[in-house]
Design brief:
heterodimer; A: 6-stranded mixed sheet; 4-stranded antiparallel sheet; 12 strands; globular; B: mainly alpha; 14 helices
Chain lengths: 261, 344
């Protein structure tokens, strides 16, 4: 099992405030890894630090063994794509035009659109089930379709690693499942490494292989999701009492019952 | 800051009536081209001296030394060309700045580039009238200096659009105070400068064409190249960075292109306002937000609006000639209010 991303003693500060404190983690290649933790614990900041949107005060983040700061902007975007939590786009953008922007890291200002660009766009639309909606305006899509369009744009980058910040947050439960199943399928079919911030712990248990649990900028624990997320851990990290039971598929499900007093 | 709150009117219409988007856009671009050609043409055939169409055609194909030929070749034609280039430059400058600053109100006037040119021009015209041939280059230097000042003031671990626009407003206010100060201290010499302050094409001729033409050509090419980068930038800084765009560098370079375009225009015709603001907005309403179309569209419509307004300004109170800046402001201010109510 090779490492796609490694964090070695990473600290990130915003102004004087330390947001991530000596964080260590190895994100295995070809798996889905979830980052969970309370609001404000530094999950989004961690993703931004990977994408060099926030500088590390100390420590190293490597992508396939190479420090992220040693990549050029475009070379980095060819290896790793990120979908931030909220995104704006011009309202009159067509889905296919949005996906086409995903080819940006492959183009220079003098080169035109190549056949490979075209193939990557079609493939990304196909993989996300957006082929039939390619000529639609982004603004006329439902929340789930919009999110799939953005994922298609990220896939058009042909990345080896995909980072997502709370991809299901603003969606209803059916669209949430749709997105999570899509990510699982992409991971299984193409071996895409996925690192995502999730709030829904049941989704994490059902759809992810590895989990990293954060609290106050520090890594609490990490490991295979099903083994790692336990009632006592959640009590420690979130301060919530949960009941667990095993559902019909043999997957553990959690129900938050009460706050710990 | 929310830049896009609503679908452009036209896309609603297109969606509603099932009009083919491609054909619509092609049609709009063609209309803009026709308007620009009409504007150039009207600027040449309309004027204080009555010259018949047949005669104009003859003169254009075979210039001679008659006064009519002088009027067409040395007054109307260069003036029309300057008007078209100025309109196109200002419109492109505004279109680029609106995406770079992620603010629909950005234009060379608001961020202080024009005020820089204004101060440079006024200083030469009023304080150093002996060097009046240097008005344009000094105005150009003033505009570029203002752009640099905005950058330095707005720089703090990178460039943030909001900080940039606020720095621009501050620079603009500061330089405008300088302009007003000079005009008050030297109120006896203000007359010549007044025309320049509102922006006018009066007495613009071939030397002015040669000043603005290289910048217009280079600027247009750079703007066309920029279109793809501007489209990526419209997704927001984080997504743009995620796609591999060096956002800070792109912002610096794109603003430099916008400053170059605006500086060359302002230094030739003075402080012509509103073109940079309204033309990109009209273009966006009709063509959409894709910069690959917006850039050529804005260039054509900018040329059309300035040449048409200038013809109007010359004809409406003939033989008195109004500065085109006044016409632009008269059209621009109500349109601006209209935008405020409908689009923002």
């Amino acid at each position: 099992m090779t490492a796609a991303l490694t964090f070695q003693m990473v600290s990130v500060a915003y102004a004087r405030k330390l947001i991530i404190d000596e964080f260590n983690l190895t994100v295995p290649s070809g798996q889905i890894t979830a980052i969970i933790g309370p609001n404000g614990c530094g999950k989004s900041t961690l993703l931004k630090a990977v994408c060099r949107m926030m500088p590390c005060r100390s420590g190293n983040i490597t992508l396939f063994g190479k420090n992220v700061h040693c990549y050029t902007h475009k070379a980095f975007a060819r290896q790793l794509a990120i979908l931030t939590q909220s995104h704006t786009a011009p309202p009159d953008l067509l889905v296919r035009d949005l996906v086409a922007l995903g080819r940006f890291p492959y183009r220079s200002f003098y080169s035109g659109f190549s056949g490979e660009d075209e193939a990557a766009i079609l493939e990304a639309l196909e993989a996300t089930g957006m082929s039939g909606l390619a000529e639609r305006l982004l603004n006329t899509l439902s929340g789930g379709e919009k999110q799939r369009a953005w994922i298609a744009m990220a896939l058009a980058q042909r990345p080896k690693v995909l980072l997502l910040d709370e991809p299901t947050t603003y969606l209803d439960i059916s669209h949430q499942l749709e997105i999570m199943q899509l990510l699982r399928r992409l991971n299984q079919q193409t071996g895409l490494t996925i690192l995502l911030v999730l709030h829904d712990l049941n989704q994490a248990i059902r759809f992810t292989d590895q989990v990293a649990v954060m609290k106050a900028g520090k890594l609490v624990t990490s490991g295979p999701t099903a083994k790692t997320i336990t009632a006592s851990l959640l009590q420690q990290v979130f301060g919530v009492k949960v009941e667990t039971f095993v559902d019909a598929d043999g997957v553990t499900a959690l129900i938050p019952m009460d706050l710990c007093k | 800051m929310k830049v896009f709150s609503r679908l452009p009117e036209i896309d609603k219409t297109i969606t509603k009536y099932g009009i083919n988007r491609k054909w619509w856009r092609f049609g709009v671009l063609l209309t803009f081209l026709a308007l620009a050609v009409t504007g150039l043409f009207l600027s040449i055939i309309k004027g204080a001296a009555e010259i018949s169409l047949a005669q104009i055609f003859l003169i254009l194909t075979a210039p001679d030394s008659e006064p009519a030929s002088q009027i067409i070749w040395n007054i109307r034609l260069p003036r029309a060309i300057v008007g078209a280039l100025v309109g196109s430059n200002l419109a492109l400058s505004g279109a680029i700045l609106q995406a770079v600053m992620r603010n629909p109100l950005a234009d060379p006037h608001i961020i202080g580039i024009s005020a820089g040119a204004g101060l440079g021009g006024i200083v030469m015209m009023i304080l150093l009238p002996a060097y009046s041939n240097l008005v344009t280059p000094v105005a150009f230097v003033g505009a570029m200096a203002a752009a640099v000042a905005i950058y330095i003031l707005a720089w703090k671990n990178g460039i943030k659009p909001v900080r940039m626009i606020l720095a621009g407003v501050a620079v603009s206010t500061f330089l405008s105070a300088g302009i007003s100060g000079i005009m008050i201290f030297y109120s006896d010499r203000v007359h010549g400068a007044l025309m320049w302050m509102v922006g006018g094409l009066s007495a613009r001729s071939w030397p002015h064409v040669t000043i603005i033409l290289p910048y217009a050509v280079i600027g247009l090419i750079l703007a066309l190249i920029s279109a793809y980068y501007l489209n990526v930038l419209q997704l927001g800084d984080e997504m743009a960075r995620g796609l591999g765009l060096n956002v800070e560098l792109a912002r610096v370079l794109l603003t430099a292109v916008a400053a170059l375009l605006a500086a060359s225009a302002v230094s030739v015709v003075g402080l012509l306002g509103f073109v940079g603001l309204i033309v990109p907005h009209i273009t966006r309403l009709l063509l959409g937000t894709d910069y690959r179309l917006l850039i050529p569209g804005a260039a054509l419509l900018g040329a059309a609006i300035v040449t048409l307004s200038d013809t109007f300004a010359r004809v409406i109170l003939a033989p008195v000639e109004l500065p085109v800046g006044i016409i632009m402001a008269i059209i621009g201010a109500p349109f601006f209010l209209f935008l405020l109510r409908r689009q923002l």
